[in-house]
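Now for today's protein.

===
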Amino acid sequence: MLATEQIQRYRLETPGTQHHIHLNNAGAALMPEPVMEAIKRHLELESDHGGYEAAAMARGRIQGFYQSLAKLLKCEPRNIAFATNATDAYSRALSAVPFRKGDSILTTREDYVSNQLAFLQLVNRFGIKIRYADTLPAGGVDPDSVRDMIQKERPRLVAVTHMPTYSGLIQDVAAVGRICREHDILYLVDGCQTAGQLDLDMREIGCDFFSATFRKFLRGPRGTGFLFVSDRVLESGLHPLFIDLHSANWTGDTTYRLADSARRFELWERAYALVLGARAATEYALAVNTVHIEQRVCQLAKDLRQKLASVDKIEVLDRGAALGGIVTLHIAGSSPNNLKAVLDQATINCSLVHIESARFDFQERDIEWALRLSPHYYNLNSELDEVTGILDEQINRS
């Protein structure tokens, strides 16, 4: 676990902690100073020398992005592609799957809204089908249901969200990965909320694609994300629907040759200052130690759930065998906008989740909204006490 003096040091390196109780890390975490410095240094280089010239001068540092992220994910640099955000990465992976009419995607109801919208587009454009694996009574995907549906339907793709945006649930993506490998099925994991929060191992998860962002628990800049691509995908020749001069070489009037690494899932143009910021965020997480980050985040979230559950009228919504750093709650009869305004006034950062982003789950619970609190390792227990006390006081006033 992280020692008190370590946490204080991380807070000193995160100026935003002096002005806010930041419990919106599932939205965008506070960037530490080394990340900001990496971005500013490259912007200054571009200002002094020009964009192309600065990129050439920083080529070695830019390549370090792939090495650092590969270390974080326990894979090889060739498996890493830079993306501008998690949905960008997810869409590139999805576009590489050779869907045909009648194919199916096997997914879960604990998913991210943008993924569901992408699936519906595939239904409308290609005539594919969406199938949903069963949910365990305690919450989360039922691996036995995944196995049964694979054997019955042989889907073109299995797609699972590691942790939905509206719940602390951590789905057992490794169990699903073992089943997909057993049946030779392509497997896509949305790790948008778990990258930087959990200690990740692509070998253990066993997926073909893993998409994520840097702005959340990795504490990187907005406008940065990544896609992990497995060796078997690279060896199979799969590539996104649209490529450019970076993704492939134009070898003849009517021919091209794909990059032999995950670079084929990238596009040429990007903000290199942000790439270097993403690298700095990755190295910062590695220095803190992702095992220790996971332990502290999960413990803080557990403590927060217990504190909130002790308050009359607060319903803590999170369920599942494994829970992480997203805490969601509902207060019947309360105005979500008023609650958010009260917390904003107290300089407590949080988010609201509405039914449009959690249709399956919220319809089952018969609720329209949830308040989302997402602590990170730099948060303090005293901050959890403060937000709990404010919510308790607001309920009593109402």
